[in-house]
Amino acid sequence: MEPADELLNDQASLELDADPMRLNMGPSHPAMHGTIRMVMDLDGENVINLDVQPGYLHRGFEKSCERGTWAQVFPYADRLNYVSPMLNNVGWSLAVEKLLGIEVPERCQYYRVVLGELSRIADHFTCNGASAMELGAFTPFLWLLKVRDWVWDILERETGARMTHSFGRIGGMAAPPTATFKDDVRQLIPEIYKVVKETEIMLLRNRIFLDRMQGVGVLTKEQALSYGCTGPVARSTGIPYDVRKDHPYMVYDRFDFDVPVGEDGDNWDRFMVRLEEIRQSVRIIEQALEQMPDDGAVNVDDPRIVYPDKSEVYTTIEATIAHFKLVMEGLRVPRGEVYSFTEGGNGELGFHIVSDGSGTPYRVRVRPPCWYNLAASREMLLGGMIADIIPTFGSVNMIGGECDR
Amino acid sequence: MPKFTLDGKEIAFEPGETVMQAAWREGIEIPHYCWHPGLSIAANCRMCLVQVESGRQMAMPQLRFDESTGEYVPTTKPKLQPACQLAADEGMVVSSTNDEVKAAQASVQEFLLLNHPVDCPICDQAGECKLQDYYYEHQGTLKRKLTEPVHKPKGVRFGPTIVYDAERCIMCTRCIRVCDEVAKDHVLDMRERGNKNEIVLAPGRELDHKYTLMTEHVCPVGALTSSDFRFKARVWFLKSGKGICTGCATGCNTHVDYDPRYGKVYRLRPRDNADVNEFWMCDDGMMTYARHATDRVLTATAGRGEGRAPIGEREAISLAAEKLASVDASKLAVVLSAQHTTEDNLALARLASSLGAERLYLAALGGWEGDDILRSDDNNPNRAGATQAAGGAVLRTLSDLIGDVQSGEVRGVVALGWASAERLEELAPLLALDAVVSLSSHIGALPAAAEVVIPVAEIFEVDGSFINAKGMAQEFRQVLSAPADIEPGWRVVADIAKALGQDLGFTDLQSLRKGLSDAAEAAQ
Fold first, then answer.
1. Do A312 and B141 count as a contact with CB atoms less than 8 A apart?
2. ipTM of the modeled complex
3. B139 Cβ under 8 Å from any chain A Cβ
């Protein structure tokens, strides 16, 4: 790129200026899915240079964690990927439980799996629906979101909130499954299959959709690896990495499911990988519901970790003290550090936590999948056209809450 | 020094020391209730049981229930020993964390909570209670007992300062031992046994010696509470600063517990200092904090009696300078204060010497009885500091001043502090003088006798130092911020000096303290 003033001084040139145009997209822009700023140099409609700049959300997640108790991190974790907060909740629980050296009862593990997979389905519905809508296909968006709402209805019945549930607890969950939980989910499963099928019918043979998705926003396997991409973005390039499969946690090793991968790493592959993952999540849910015990404890049996029952708190000194200590000082986590990682909605969600033995985290470092996918999005967008930014950036499914920590 | 091993760590000990004591010196806490470094050994709470893993093992035969077969199987259990009573020995290997010890700690803790009332929400000890701490660290199980807990007397008035709750009591006997060993007054004892155990007063007595608040201080649970602190504050809202008691010339080290939200001090606690007060303080000392918030002088005033009216701070300082300038230096009396910091006194002594005023007096409190435990015969924290600030000569008293005023030798007075043993009636001759300036944090006879009163910061609001009866200089730090526009005494003195056109040679506390060491050398 030549500096503008040099070109202006060149009196001999009578042609129209061919300077690249610098354009700011965002941070406050409908296509930017949160507050991301893109500074790009355009040659006509082609993006010849691009700088993706997160950091406008000012969350301070990691620092905020250092002043509350371990349990008070849940609401912050909810807001990492706020489209699938349950996955973050469970990720955080597992990290602290790993440092504590405890494992929650099996019933709770299944419960966490089902709620987590429902969240993943909601997440993929949102991403794929929005991708379609941004290309003008409004109906798939509405239909997907209709079913997503039914998914959230179940989550609301279980947790009390549609999003930002703050339902995870260290050593268990805030409440046991409701009596109708299994039936509710089983009733919803056909609807999920149906809407996925409908989406395929509407979009997969649509010329406009195909043209905007296929061969656009390509990320190679090597690039995905070097950027540290995970989740659907990495799998669309042909990397079959899924934490649930490669490093099974909770009870994921007991389920029969496939990890869909793409070949080209373009928008199309990312779209298709997510669509297929919805089906695989449903498979996991079906098996988990089958195996999940109908009764038994959900929380670990240790009043030093999980709040004792209120009826005991009010009547016995032991429970009162446990409650007091957990509220005033927080549950104490042994000195040490761990890295614990799970498959979030967009890839590997890792928590590296350090404890000094007190009731407050000493340091919390989160590895949000979107951060790495966002970095790689430059490679996808560079050389493309400005209009492609919208579907491509949409298919990265960047969540601002994760990137600004 | 000989060494023994505790939980894999080598600990040096003086011959004759117990395992607990040697560990405590190293900063390692073996859980305990009844042991206190300043008291005799009772070894009755059983929380500090440890296993001596070296030497010949003592084992007790025992039947253990086997859940898989539903039968009792004979086994043995090691004999654990209380660390507080166990003399350390060269090469001894002690464990305070192995499974047997942990089981014992959990059981002792469970027994202690067996009949404990559900009082945490209304108990002043909550937040600094050993039962809570050790429950979390060593027990962590819920209640197994289904029957009603044993009820015992609650809210028993032991005396003017202490209220006793027998249900919360764990019978560690620390309070009994504090009365016996520190206050030398056997006023508390224990009656009954088992779950009817209770601390009682000696017949016909009240808990009314001079160290009653120490019983509350050593109580590891909420059984003894101070009537003064009861229900006043929750400890987790309090922050703590380091102070020196102003009650007497012993200079006991204190923790000043204050609520930062209100800028209010709620209590003092003794701060361990082996050279001064060991672990203790007397009741009067503990209560000196109360003075801080009451009877403050918050605005400068001019005039006397009915005519006294508030004036601005700046105005007061120039008025004071004007009054002092009107008096010949040879007839100007400068009154230092045994209740103020050495720094304040030094600043005033400097002003005196720079004006050429040679008449130095000392205002001090009286009417106090010392004892041979902690309480000094002098109830002023800094007589030695004021004397040193004035160059080391013994200072004349306020009654000397009254005589000098009456004989006409003194025509003007500048006085530091509110504290004087003399009442206003005795100070009446001062009322006849026009040039009487008082720098005071509280109302009192001296400011009442003054024509101009300028407020100064209170003891919790300044950095400073006291020199105690043993000649030890002890520094302390500002805990609270002073009310608006109120400055430490030494700064007000500097302001007056400036208005008088005098340079006292210091700009901050550091340069002032340098003068202090010079004064100390001069005194020697």
1. no
2. 0.88
3. yes
